[in-house]
Amino acid sequence: MAEAFLKVQDLARRYPGGKRGDAVFTVFEQVNFSIRKGEFVCMIGHSGCGKTTILNVLAGLDRASDGVCIMDGREIAGPSLDRGVIFQNHSLLPWHSALKNVTFAVAARHRDWNRRQVLEHSQKYLERVGLRGSEARRPAQLSGGMRQRVGIARAFAIEPKLLLMDEPFGALDALTRGNIQEELIRIWSKTHQTVFMITHDVDEAILLADRILLMTNGPEARIAESVVVDLPRPRDRTQIIHLPAYYAIRNHLIEFLVRRSKDFLRHPPAGFDPRNPPTVQPGLETAVFTAPGPSSPRAHRSAP
Ligand SMILES: Nc1ncnc2c1ncn2[C@@H]1O[C@H](COP(=O)(O)OP(=O)(O)OP(=O)(O)O)[C@@H](O)[C@H]1O
Ligand SMILES: [Mg+2]
Q: How high is the pLDDT of residue 177?
C-alpha cells in the first residue's frame, strides 16, 4: 500500500458548555483517516457532524482540540498555497473582477511568473469553468453559480498539492453542476491532485471519489466506514448507472445516511474501532441490507 500523503490522527473538536449543562460539547473525536497521493476522497455525513470543521483544520484555518494532521510529512499548522480551498460559499474578493480574483492567487503561488504567464494561466482556468467573456465582472455582477465557478477556477488554477472542497457544487443548478463535475474529473485526471471533498450528494460522491468516508451523526461523531468506490475510470454519469456495483454502493450510502448513521455509535458493529474504521466494498456483501449490525466479514478489510 502506498504511503499516506495526508494523515489525520485522533482529531477532536470540543467547545465549552454542552446543551445539557455538560462541561464540554464534543462535535467529533477519534477521527482518523489517511489519503494517498492522487486519491480523491469524499466525506458524507449529516449536517452538524463536523465536516466543515475538519476541512478547515486541514486548510490550516482552524485548530483542532486534539490530534494532528500531517501532509507530505509535515504537520499542518496554518494556511498554505499547497492547499487550495473551495468553500461552501464562494468567498471571493468583492472589489476585484472574476479575473483578478484568480490572477491574485496565481501570482501569489508563482512569484517568478511574469504578468502574461499569470494572465494566460488564469484565463485558461476561467474558460474551463465556462466563464469566458465574464472575466471583467465583479462578484456582485455574477450569478451565484458563476461566483462559485470563479472560486473553483481559482482553487484549481493554483494547482495545490491538496484540494479541499466543501460542497463546492451545492449552489449550482443541475445542468451546470453536471458540466462542472465533468470538468473537475477532466482536470483531476490530468493533474492527479489529491482531493478531499465534502458533499451531501451520494451520486456526486460515487461519480467522483475513489473512497467515501461516512461520518456518524454528531455530537461525538466518528468516522464509521471508508467505502471503496471501485468503478472503472474514466466515469461517465450516463454509463456508470448501468453497473450493478453502482447501485450496491448507492444503496449502502443511503442506508447509512437514512438509518445507520444515527444509531451507529450506540450499536457499533462487532470489533468497531473508530481509530481504524473498517474499509467496506459494497457489492461484495449482502448482509448489511438484511441484518442490522455487523455485515459479513468479507465486507470489511482493515483500512489502508
Ligand atoms: N463556537 C461554537 N460553539 C459551539 N459549537 C459550535 C461552535 N461552532 C460550531 N459549533 C458546532 O460544531 C458543529 C460542526 O459544525 P460544522 O460546520 O463543522 O458541521 P458540518 O458537518 O459542516 O455541517 P453542514 O453539513 O451543515 O455544513 C455544529 O454542531 C456546530 O453547532
Ligand atoms: Mg459544512
A: 87
